Amino acid sequence: MVGFYELQLILLVSSCLIFLFLERHVSRRKELKEKDLHAAERLENGEPTASHNSLATLTRQYLIVYAIVMGADWLQGPYVYSLYREQYGLSERMVAILFVTGFMSAGLTAPLMGVWADQHGRKKLCLAFCLTYTFTCCCITIPYLPILLLGRVCGGISTSILYSAFESWLVSSAGALALPSTDLSTIFGRATLVNGFVATGAGVASNQLVTLTNSFTSPFVASGVLLLLAYLVIRASWGENFGGGGTTPGKDLFQLKRLGQAWRIVKDDPMLLVIGLTQTCFEGSMYLFVFLWVPSLQEASPTFPTIALPLGYIFSSFMISMMLGSLLYSVVTTQSGGLTVHAKLSSLVCAFAALALAISVRSESERVRFWAFCAFEACVGMYYPVQGMLRGTLISNEHRATLSSLFRVPLNVFVVVSLMTGVSSARNAVLSASSLMLAFSALMTAFVVVARADDHVSPETSLRPE
Questions:
Q1: How far apart are CA 189 and CA 49, in angstroms?
Q2: Which GO terms describe its molecular function (predicted)?
């Protein structure tokens, strides 16, 4: 069976290289046309022609850091469950409790992390992420339950920062440079593509590290080293930016007034409510998938536990699938990348993700489940740039990190409730529920966001100041 997964990985890599070549060919033609057009417009308006250089600099600054931090995160992906369950000998119920601890920590701290990022600086929070996630890697290597729980708490805090402050820093920096929304879309697409490459390499590297050291802890040690490297790069190359209010410290440590303002903004805008719903349904399903894919494939494998599944290679296959999804996004948005297109893509991505999970539930074949999971990961590859563009267009800079983090509260509640209901005894039920939630999200996006997209006026029109 190892030969099967190695063959699928080779096929997926070959497909990805072909699609990458085609995507670069199409994108290069578009970039040449746009470069000439923008240069002519700037000369006509008397503007400097440094936008292309600014885009290249910002892209390089962001993608280098993004590749390092996501590499550190993905190194841990294939073996979190196996480390707890197989090396440390914890029961599946206790493993679920550890996962729940992380999600509860993320849910409780997400709003504060977003507010503090807007208030005190996104760069500072990104630097804090590197330190807290390094501490998490140290804790997970110690097989003592209180230390493992402490590590999950710090991991939850780190996750809240990772999925709010980094994106907010990028969007705000793009706005400060007066880059058009098409350039921001390009950066998001490339970030997802880089993420796929890094995750694929991380899956293979983690598999090799475990083979060489005969320990599931080695990928976590390597992850800690990468995080320290990311700290140095961020400190040396990034500038600071803030949300509304700048560096004003204020007396409200927990920023309840600011959180109240953010909640009123969401409550009064149906489009933002649906964006939050989509984030809850999709990312909730994705995090549950992280917990479920290993036991689900093991359950369907006729040779397990006699022959262990090559989890690193399977994980790399998932990441290549994610890259294929990001390439498809780049191709689709090459000709048109407006709000309406992204809203339609968001609805379609949720619909196809729901279908993929439904197929994995209906089939008892290991190979069908594997390919269904690959299809789900391809949807993940499209989801991140689509959702990033929707948030960047619909949310003003003043509350960007705050609202992005606020959306994570129901997300983590959804995951915690699902895990505490007994995932080990009801894997199919949890996947079925995730499929239904995604289908509902697809319909709501179609009826609300797509329907209102043409009439929407961005809070920062195309990220370009008047």
A1: 24
A2: molybdate ion transmembrane transporter activity
